[in-house]
Structure formats: structure tokens, C-alpha cells
Write a structure and sequence with these properties.
Blueprint: H1 3-17, H2 19-28, E1 50-54, E2 57-60, E3 65-68, H3 83-94, H4 105-116, E4 122-126, H5 129-144, E5 148-152, E6 175-179, H6 184-193, E7 198-203, E8 206-207, E9 213-214, H7 217-230, E10 233-237, H8 248-253, E11 259-263, E12 273-277, H9 279-282, H10 303-316, H11 319-339, E13 346-350, E14 353-357, H12 373-385, E15 388-389, E16 395-397, H13 404-421
Parallel strand pairs: 3-15, 5-6, 5-7, 7-10, 10-11
Antiparallel strand pairs: 1-2, 2-3, 4-12, 8-9, 11-12, 13-14, 14-16
Length: 426
């Protein structure tokens, strides 16, 4: 069977098995463009509509249950309906919400984050990682009086800060310079070339949506030196990667940026973002100071995110829990790569984040990746058929609720996929 025929067969099987999800998508399309309000979640012929979730499992409208290996793109670290998070949110509800005032929750969460992440002297909250990155760039340009922002191919820093594949039309209006991820020589030249106007260097310590490609320690150290020498602000986007250690990948690799952005799970699975860094940078937002830079946001300190974030970090995800999750992900990636030995299929990543690529060649940057959309679609639909939910692009982000049994079952499913479609994986 050809690859195109295999994909067509998988689509037909998917459509036949999910009539209620199809109907839900058609209803949604009457009031939302394409029935969608979050582009990442759409895929043809139509996306599944989930009805409920528990632990590390999702159930769709047609009654199929899946092991959730996506973890809402790293936001769902605590699994679905974790009782500790539920208790924290219930307690916040009991005290009332939409306070329009300072509450006690935000100071507690801020203190925990500043204690854990080496770069955070002070921190402020937002509603998303996108906002956090926009404000980190604004902090850098305001502080330095410069305009140029060095970013890297494959990077994704939010819905208006997507820089891979040439970016998106509605990217923020910044003067971006695009570098090659993990390329020491080329990056060094770019830093030197733009030294006089370099406001910020914005980088993910591991590309997330860009394919789960970790930075090398040497690359991050080069960025640290370059920022220090030019007076630019080094920003680590740890919206996804902060889960890698108690203090994120900056602690894991021993490279401390000037600023860090956070989001996803650090709000306990609620709407959340944060940006912070050195005291002299963040002091610009101190409203007690003359000429302070304003930073507003109706829901910046909403009681749900503040309470859930604090409970999650202190009760569910202390540093030792991050170490255990990291080790589980490392084992899973090794087992998957062992299962894929002999075919054009490999898994990249670090710790609990990993992505499948349909090639034999090693990957150290986006330029190394083969474009294999048909293989990715076939794999995604096949895994759904076998009861595993992951990103269409092949990304996995383990939650604390995902155990060794689920990891072993997924490895077995991948082995079965290879046995069935081996001739297409050359």
C-alpha cells in the first residue's frame, strides 16, 4: 500500500468512528471560523471533541477513551481534575473572585517562583505565555533604548511571536533578526553585527513546537556571553521547559538569563503567564517609583490561577517531583528510539517533552528536519485509533498522572505501528 492510500484509509476509519465529533465540529463552524478558536487544535478531516477527562485519560463525544500523552502542550502537568488543584480552586471560590484588588494569593505564588528560578529577583503575572514574552521584549527595549531582538528559527514564543518558517503575518511589530538554533559561529556573527542596537536575545532552551530540539550548553553559554558583552537582555522562554528541573532548564544547564518567561502548568493548569528577572529590570514596573512603566491586566492576579499555581508547585511539583518526571521521560524516549531502530523514525526531546520525526538523520536544529506531513498524519490517526492522544505534529508532554504502564503501552503501540507500516518508513 502506498503512503497516500494508507493516509486515506486512516482518514476514512477516523471519520466513520467519530460521527458525533464531526457533527460538533460542523455546529461550531457556524459561529467560529473553521469551528475553531485555537488553531493548534485543528486537524483534518475534523478534530475530536472531548466530553470529559480524568487523570491521564480523555473521553470524546463518541465514547472513545484515550491515554492523554499531550498534556495540553505542557499546560496539563497535573493531569485532569487533580484533587489538590481542585481543593485550591474550591477554596479560592469560597473567598469570592473578581476582587478588583490585591489578594494574598499572588504574593505567595511570586515568592515560590522567585525562590525556585535562579534568574527571578522579581516577577509579574500575565494571562498567557504570549503576554509574558511580549512584556519581556518590551522590558528589554525600554531598558536598553534599543530595538533589535535576536530570535531563532523554529522558535515559538506565543500566538503573535511565532518565528519558525518565516513567522506569521500578525507577529508583533518588532525588529527581529532570525538566527540559526545551535549554530555557534553564525550566532556569534549576528550578535557582533547587531551589537549596537541589540535589545534582547529571546530563546527557548529547548524548541517546543519547533520539534523538541534541546539547545546545547555551549549555545546557551554563547548567548549569555553575547548578551553580557553587548548590554542586551537575555530572555529564556521557559513557558514549556520550566518543568525540566525545579529551577527550569536554566538550573539544569547552569546558565542564568537576565529574564525568564513562564506559563502553562505554573498556573496550576489555569490561565497564566509570568515574566521576571533581575531587580533593576523589573523595578521599572514599581508603581511607587516616579516614571514607572504601567503594566495592567484585569485577570493578572485572578484568584484561581494564583491559588492553583501555588498549590501545584508546593504540593505536587517540588523539585524532586520534577526530577522523577524528567527521568520517566528520558526512559520513554530511549525505549521509543529502541523500538524505532531500523526505520526512518526517531524521537527528539529532553525529559518529559518529546517529538517524533520520520527520518534517520540526527537533528540539532530545524534545518535538519525532513518535511513529512503525510507520515505525521498517518501516525497521529493511527495512535488515536489505538487509544493514544498526542499532538498532530507528533509532540508528547507527559503529565504527573502518566505512569510507567501508560508509557509501556504507548511503546507497544508504536511497535505495532512500525510492524504494520514498516515499508512506508524507509
Amino acid at each position: 500500500m502506498s503512503l497516500d492510500a494508507a493516509v486515506a484509509e486512516a482518514r476514512d476509519r477516523f471519520a466513520a468512528a467519530n460521527p458525533r465529533s464531526r457533527a460538533a465540529h460542523e455546529r461550531a463552524a457556524a459561529s467560529m471560523p473553521g469551528g475553531n478558536t485555537r488553531t493548534t487544535l485543528f486537524y483534518p478531516p475534523f478534530p475530536l471533541t472531548m466530553a470529559r477527562a480524568d487523570g491521564c485519560r480523555l473521553t470524546d463525544l463518541d465514547g472513545h477513551t484515550y491515554v492523554d500523552l499531550l498534556g495540553d502542550y505542557t499546560a496539563g502537568l497535573y493531569g485532569h481534575n487533580n484533587p489538590v488543584i481542585r481543593k485550591a480552586v474550591d477554596a479560592a471560590l469560597d473567598g469570592g473572585w473578581n476582587l478588583g484588588a490585591h489578594g494574598e494569593h499572588e504574593a505567595r505564588l511570586a515568592a515560590v517562583l522567585c525562590a525556585r528560578f535562579p534568574s527571578l529577583d522579581l516577577v509579574r503575572f500575565t494571562n498567557s505565555g504570549t503576554e509574558a514574552n511580549l512584556l519581556a521584549i518590551a522590558t528589554a527595549t525600554t531598558h536598553t533604548g534599543r530595538r533589535t531582538v535576536l530570535v531563532f528559527d523554529g522558535g515559538y514564543h506565543g500566538s503573535v511571536l511565532a518565528v519558525g518558517d518565516g513567522g506569521v503575518p500578525d507577529n508583533g511589530p518588532h525588529l527581529f533578526v532570525l538566527g540559526e538554533y545551535n549554530d555557534l559561529a553564525a550566532t556569534g556573527r549576528l550578535v557582533d553585527e547587531h551589537a549596537g542596537d541589540l535589545a534582547a536575545i529571546l530563546v527557548e532552551p529547548m524548541l517546543g513546537s519547533g520539534g523538541c530540539v534541546p539547545a546545547t550548553p555551549e549555545f546557551l553559554e554563547l548567548l549569555r556571553r553575547g548578551a553580557s558583552e553587548t548590554g542586551a537582555v537575555l530572555v529564556f522562554d521557559e513557558v514549556m521547559t520550566s518543568r525540566m528541573a525545579g529551577g527550569g532548564m536554566q538550573e539544569l544547564f547552569g546558565v542564568t538569563p537576565d529574564m525568564t518567561t513562564l506559563g502553562k502548568y505554573t498556573g496550576g493548569g489555569m490561565t497564566f503567564g509570568a515574566f521576571g528577572g533581575r531587580a533593576e529590570l523589573m523595578a521599572r514596573y514599581d508603581p511607587r517609583r516616579p516614571g514607572a512603566v504601567p503594566h495592567a491586566g484585569t485577570f493578572n492576579n485572578n484568584v484561581f490561577s494564583m491559588a492553583a499555581g501555588y498549590a501545584g508547585l508546593t504540593e505536587l511539583f517540588p523539585p524532586e517531583a520534577s526530577e522523577a518526571l524528567f527521568a520517566r521521560g528520558e526512559r520513554l524516549r530511549a525505549e521509543l528510539n529502541g523500538a524505532c531502530d531500523g526505520v526512518a523514525m526517531r524521537w527528539t526531546g529532553l525529559g518529559s517533552m518529546l517529538t517524533v520525526h520520520f527520518q534517520r538523520e540526527p537533528i540539532s536544529a530545524p534545518r535538519d528536519m525532513r518535511r513529512t506531513p503525510a507520515h505525521r498524519e498517518l501516525f497521529h490517526l493511527d495512535m488515536l485509533h489505538r487509544g493514544f492522544h498526542l499532538a498532530r505534529r507528533g509532540m508528547i508532554a507527559l503529565s504527573l498522572a502518566t505512569g510507567d504502564a501508560e508509557c509501556a503501552a504507548f511503546t507497544a503501540a508504536v511497535t505495532e505501528f512500525i510492524a504494520e507500516h514498516g515499508p512506508l518508513l524507509k
